[in-house]
Every structure is written in structure tokens, then in C-alpha cells.
Amino acid sequence: MPCWQLIGQSLAYDFFATDLEKYLHDHGITRLIFTGVVIHNSMDASIRVAHCLGFDVILPLDATTAIDVTDAKGVRHDAQTVFDLFAAVLGSEYCTLSTTDDVIAALPA
User: Fold this and answer.
1) Residues near 80 by Cβ (< 8 Å), separated by ≥ 6?
2) CB of 7 closer than 8 Å to CB of 19
3) Which residues touch 71 (CB under 8 Å, ≥6 apart)?
4) Measured between alpha carbons, how far is 71 from 55 in angstroms, rounded to an integer?
5) pLDDT truncated to tens, each residue of the chain (109 aa)?
6) Nearest to 20 by CA among 10, 7, 32
7) Phi and psi at residue 69, in whole multiples of 5°?
8) How far is it, in rounded angstroms, from Cα 7 to Cα 17?
């Protein structure tokens, strides 16, 4: 199995119109670790879908971030508030929240 597999993404989550799910199942991959630029966009969607597809999902909180968001009423929510809210929601049902140190420590020697 190659160390890296490039799978193009065209929408805000990794599983739509890609062969990612098939690739993961074909290679016996059941646990996914998500890192990325912003927790509240494609990461949120991809984590939710991965969970619904039966994958064990881990989100190291120190391996992502958020940016400020302005809601439909024009209220600006700072990045830390956005981050904390999305982490709480994702961690409540869709993934295990962790740190990069914990992920690395859990890797086989």
C-alpha cells in the first residue's frame, strides 16, 4: 500500500464524488485522523460523513483551527468561539477529540 493516496476533492467534504470510501475499505482502513485548516467547513462535513459511514474518527484539536464567522444577523463570532462550538458538537457524537501528542503516542512502535 502506498504511504499517500491523492484523491481530488471538489466539494466541502471528502467522500462526495471520490473513490475515498472504496479506497479506505479496500485497504482495511477503519480509523481516520482529521487535521486541516478550519474545523467548521470541510472538516466538519467530512468528519460527520466518515462517522456515518462507520469509520472511527479522531480529531486532534491542536491540528486544526477556525476563523471568525459572521452569522445571518450580521453578528461576528470570534474564531475561538467558533472552534470551541464545533469541537463540542463534533466530539459529542461524531469523533473522539484528542491531541497530536496523544495520536503520536498511540502509534505502533
Assistant:
1) 66
2) yes
3) 77
4) 31
5) 455 555 555 555 667 767 888 889 999 999 999 998 889 988 898 899 999 999 999 999 999 999 999 999 999 999 999 999 999 999 999 999 999 999 999 988 7
6) 7
7) -130, 135
8) 10
- Residue type present at position 102: D
Check: CB of residue 30 under 8 Å from CB of residue 56. Answer: yes
C-alpha cell at 63: 491540528
Three-class SS of the chain: CCCCCCCCCCCCCCCCCCCHHHHHHHCCCCEEECCCCEHHHHHHHHHHHHHHCCCEEEEEHHHCECCCEECCCCCEECHHHHHHHHHHHHHHHCCEEECHHHHHHHCCC
Helix axes 79-93, 44-52, angle to 10 degrees: 0
pTM as predicted: 0.85
